[in-house]
Amino acid sequence: MTVLIDPPDWPGPRGLMWSHLVSDSSLEELHAFAARLGVPPRAFDRDHYDVPETVHARAVELGAEAVSSRELLLRLVASGLRRRKRRQLP
């Protein structure tokens, strides 16, 4: 069981850079880790949490594995937990 976090490379609200927090084994593990980290449930989006740069170091301290964005996506897909956005028809 591993929680993964990518670098805060994604621009977002409040002028902060953002990371993705995922689990490569279960959503229950991910939700429990996010709660320990103090990330609100509203930050969850289908298969990951969006977290600001201000919590990246704390996530690693709590045991998240820092990986590249590419590695995070590959491991999320391999876990079977990836949930893509549905395409909206025109």
TrEMBL record:
**DUF4031 domain boundaries:** 3-78
A Pfam family in this protein?
Answer: DUF4031
> What InterPro entries does the annotation carry?
DUF4031
Name this protein carries in UniProt: DUF4031 domain-containing protein
Native source organism of the sequence = Nonomuraea phyllanthi
The opening ranks of the lineage are:
Bacteria, Bacillati, Actinomycetota, Actinomycetes, Streptosporangiales
